[in-house]
């Protein structure tokens, strides 16, 4: 009787899981399908393209949209990587200090970080637009990296300080007794143990910066710094009545690829468990 | 190797709490010193001050005649084994043991030789390539010791290293630590709240209570000659029995009858109304099995036996009795301080394994008065304590 029920429960879970997956992935599948459709096919109301074509990809990688898309892609990759790197390094140090040291203003840092991340992006972007134009950061890479840090740092600090708190303090003390300086103890014991946390933080930061649209479209004006999400809005059809939906879909598929690769690559590193065995199990 | 000297050591925390109060202690070169006391007595804090993980609020700490108050842990050249072992989970056993050597930039060949030697000593050779997560509790404990012995540290510090092991393993590791220390002849400070470890391991034992040093002596002298109520109650298991006694003109009156203290134990009781008699469980015996030659050294009384615990080699009998309210309160306070809780005032009496006394019966029990201590209930002082022999106290501390 009981086994029967667990079997039924199991199948119900499966059904629920499939529903969620379909619900979540259907728009993605639709975009992939769109990107392979011909222009005439776009409004065919069919899920699959009647004829499969690489035209859209050709258009953004070699055709009319090449300049627009490739420079945007370069901007996106560069800005996101730099922003992620800075965020991870800064938040590692900051979170370590918060988790380990007792200093005045510790609470203040954490609350400020939280407060910053609460502000709606749209409320900051207008003053920032004016400020950036006055000090010459408008339409430059640093002009985007700095606001991205304001998005990624609070989250990274919170995630990482929670992670550092899990690492037994005795490990560090043991290292110091063993003859390590504070820096050596940090680098040779704490950092290796915090790697899963650092990777998780890095990936989250990467996503945030990679997916940003509001800053991207507001603080740039040319190909010098415009990232992909913003650049997509500048794709135009052959006439103003024609939307280049196919090309936009193709670009959307391409920008999704790095994210998928990242998750697949680091999935196992994100899964923690490295601290097992440090202390009595 | 070096001696460790503490002069008027004080630890005051930020909130004004004094964890360690004015401790003076000399640990000789090569000596095995135990710091023991109930939880919260400041023993771990004291150890952490020696190693440098805790700042010293006052006083002077000397290691090998050198003041170390201001030195960082890494400059004190001490090796420490932590209660939870604190192994580096991302390193293999080999690298865990080699860690202090790597930090000291020791050449590879020497690292290998010394780690292998330490591993051999601790029977870890076959586990060198494994990660700590895959080791058993006892093996992890040995790795932590390996990390300590691999360097030529001035002293070993142990912070309750066996408290996470099960009872059987604890016994084995205790012997192992003792053997290792004798073999290496290195100064060792060992913190524990387990008095079996305290009694068996140390050359000398320092008993702490609420940050104050109570008595420093060899285990034998601590047991036979406790300085006060606290030490008497803390050392020994089952603990010493405390019997309230009223001072009368011709001796002492106890719930078990009147007592005349023998000449060797008689003390000046003038001006005192009530004293506490301390008698260890083994000072009692079934009156039927006591030989006539020793019978006269004690007193025989009738006791209402409540429960008997038969352990094979001996048995413990529990004898409840009524004590005056004031004394009962004081004994309860003492018990609480010793991390235990007595439900009622009772004697714990050790009987010969052959004794035929039955539970819930009245039996005649003999108490050896030659071993009895007399305590002042007000100050806790042991009135029968012999003054410490001046000449051989330090000599006793030296390993043979």
Automatic annotation (TrEMBL), chain A:
Keywords: Cell membrane, Membrane, Transmembrane, Transmembrane helix, Transport. Residues 73-266 form the ABC transmembrane type-1 domain. The chain crosses the membrane at residues 12-32, 77-99, 108-132, 144-164, 185-210, 245-266. It is found in: Cell membrane. GO terms for biological process: transmembrane transport. The keyword Transmembrane helix applies. The keyword Transmembrane applies. One of its GO terms (cellular component) is plasma membrane. It is a multi-pass membrane protein. InterPro entries: BP-dep_ABC_trans_perm (IPR050901), MetI-like (IPR000515), MetI-like_sf (IPR035906). Belongs to the binding-protein-dependent transport system permease family. PANTHER family: INNER MEMBRANE ABC TRANSPORTER PERMEASE PROTEIN YCJP (PTHR32243:SF18), MALTOSE TRANSPORT SYSTEM PERMEASE-RELATED (PTHR32243). This is Carbohydrate ABC transporter permease. It comes from Phytoactinopolyspora halotolerans.
TrEMBL record, chain B:
InterPro entries: AAA+_ATPase, ABC_transporter-like_ATP-bd, ABC_transporter-like_CS, ABC_transpr_MalK-like, ABC_transpr_MalK/UgpC-like, Mo/tungstate-bd_C_term_dom, NA-bd_OB-fold, OB_MalK-like. It holds the Pfam family ABC_tran. CDD domains: ABC_MalK_N (cd03301). SUPFAM superfamilies: MOP-like (SSF50331), P-loop containing nucleoside triphosphate hydrolases (SSF52540). Keywords: ATP-binding, Cell membrane, Membrane, Nucleotide-binding, Translocase, Transport. One of its GO terms (biological process) is carbohydrate transport. One of its GO terms (cellular component) is ATP-binding cassette (ABC) transporter complex, substrate-binding subunit-containing. Residues 377-400 are annotated as: Disordered. Residues 4-235 form the ABC transporter domain. GO terms for molecular function: ABC-type transporter activity; ATP binding; ATP hydrolysis activity. This is sn-glycerol-3-phosphate ABC transporter ATP-binding protein UgpC. The gene is ugpC.
